[in-house]
From TrEMBL:
SMART domains: PKS_ER
Protein name: Alcohol dehydrogenase zinc-binding domain protein
Residue ranges of the TM segments: none
CDD domains assigned to the protein according to its UniProt record, in alphabetical order: QOR2 (cd05286)
Any Gene Ontology CC annotation: cytosol
Cited InterPro entries: ADH-like_C, ADH-like_N, ER, GroES-like_sf, NAD(P)-bd_dom_sf, QOR-like, Quin_OxRdtase/zeta-crystal_CS
Organism field: Asticcacaulis excentricus (strain ATCC 15261 / DSM 4724 / KCTC 12464 / NCIMB 9791 / VKM B-1370 / CB 48)
C-alpha cells in the first residue's frame, strides 16, 4: 500500500485526505515511480477547488521526481533505477505512482531530485512563455506579475539572461526584495502602488511588449493598459480568480492587442517537444543563468498546510512535498 493524498469532493484545503491506496504493477507503456520530491503548484488548487474539472476521487499533483521502480511491457524510454522527473500529469501527491513512461524525463547529472521537482512544471512554463509564446530577446520590455512566485523567479532570471528589461509586481516588500535578486530591473508593490501608472513611468510612456499574467481577475484590465500597440497579453493563471468574460473589441480600442490563454499541457503534446523543452530548461540551470529557490518543504501528509500557505500568498519560490 502507498500513502497518497486524495480528493473525494471539491472544496478548500480541508478536502485533502491522507489515505492508503494500492497502485499495483505497471501495465504496457507504464512505469512505477517512487517519489523523492513532489512539486506543489497553483494548478493543484484549481483541481482541488473544482475550478478545473476532473473525475472523483483523484490524487492531485502535477509534478514530481523520483526513481523508476518497475516498467511495463514495451517501455524503452526509461529503465529501473533511473532518476526521472515529470510534469503536467495528475496523480503526484503519493509516495509512489504509475505513469505513462513517455512522460518521464531523465534528470541530468548536476541537478538534484528536489531541484528537478521544484522547477520542472514551473520551468517548462517559463520556457514556453519566454521562448515560444513570445520569443523574448534584447530590446524587449516585459512585465511579469507575481514576480516572487515559482514561475516569476525563474522567468525573471531567464528573461534577463535573454537581454530583456524585466518589470515585476509583487505584494510585499519582502517579496520585492527577493525578486530584485532574480533578474528584475524594476519592481512594483501592487498593494501600495498603481502598477499601471508605475509601468508608464518606468517606460517613459512607451509601455511593454508583453505581459505575463498568472494573477487573473485582479490584474487583467490593468495589464491591457500597459501594452504597446500590437502587444501581447499572456494570461496563464488566475490566482486571484477567473478573468470575467472579455469583450474582444477592447483589444482593438487599446491598440490592436493580441491575447492568448496558453498552458504547459498544450505546448508539450508530444515527447519530442517535451524533450526539447526540458533540455532548454536544464541547460539554463546547469549554466547558472537560472537558480532554483526551494523556500517551503512540507511532509506529504501536510499537503493541506501546503495549500493553505500557497493560497494565502505566504509562499515564495517553489514548494515541495517530501514523501
Amino acid at each position: 500500500m502507498t500513502t497518497a493524498i486524495r480528493v473525494h469532493e471539491t472544496g478548500g484545503p480541508e478536502v485533502l485526505r491522507v489515505e492508503q491506496i494500492d497502485i499495483g504493477e505497471p501495465g504496457p507503456g507504464e512505469a512505477r515511480v517512487r517519489h523523492t520530491a513532489i512539486g506543489v503548484n497553483f494548478i493543484d488548487t484549481y483541481f482541488r477547488s473544482g475550478l478545473y474539472k476532473t473525475a472523483m476521487p483523484f490524487v492531485p499533483g502535477n509534478e514530481g521526481a523520483g526513481i523508476v521502480e518497475a516498467v511495463g511491457e514495451g517501455v524503452n524510454f526509461v529503465k529501473v533505477g533511473d532518476r526521472v522527473v515529470y510534469s503536467a500529469t495528475p496523480g503526484g501527491y503519493a509516495q509512489a505512482r504509475l505513469i505513462a513512461a513517455d512522460k518521464l524525463i531523465p534528470i541530468p547529472d548536476g541537478i538534484s531530485d528536489e531541484v528537478a521537482a521544484a522547477v520542472f512544471l514551473k520551468g517548462l512554463t517559463a520556457q514556453y512563455l519566454l521562448r515560444r509564446t513570445f520569443r523574448v530577446g534584447p530590446g524587449h520590455t516585459v512585465l511579469i506579475h507575481a514576480a516572487a512566485g515559482g514561475v516569476g523567479l525563474i522567468a525573471g532570471q531567464w528573461a534577463r539572461a535573454l537581454g530583456a528589461t524585466v518589470i515585476g509586481t509583487a505584494g510585499s516588500e519582502a517579496k520585492i526584495e527577493l525578486a530584485r535578486h532574480n533578474g528584475y530591473s524594476h519592481l512594483i508593490n501592487y498593494r501600495t502602488e498603481d502598477f499601471v501608472a508605475r509601468v508608464l513611468e518606468i517606460t517613459g510612456g512607451r509601455k511593454v511588449d508583453v505581459v505575463y499574467d498568472s494573477v487573473g481577475k485582479d490584474t487583467f484590465d490593468g495589464s491591457l493598459d500597459v501594452l504597446k500597440p500590437l502587444g501581447l497579453m499572456v494570461s496563464f493563471g488566475q490566482s486571484s480568480g477567473a478573468v470575467p468574460p472579455v469583450d474582444i473589441s477592447v483589444l482593438n480600442t487599446k491598440g490592436s492587442l493580441f491575447l492568448t490563454r496558453p498552458s504547459v499541457f498544450g505546448y508539450n503534446l508530444d515527447r519530442a517537444t517535451l524533450l526539447d523543452s526540458a533540455a532548454d530548461l536544464f541547460g539554463v540551470i546547469l549554466n547558472g543563468k537560472v537558480r532554483v529557490r526551494i523556500d517551503q518543504r512540507f511532509a506529504l501528509t501536510e499537503a493541506r498546510a501546503a495549500h493553505e500557505a500557497l493560497e494565502s500568498r505566504a509562499t515564495t519560490g517553489s514548494t515541495l512535498l517530501i514523501p
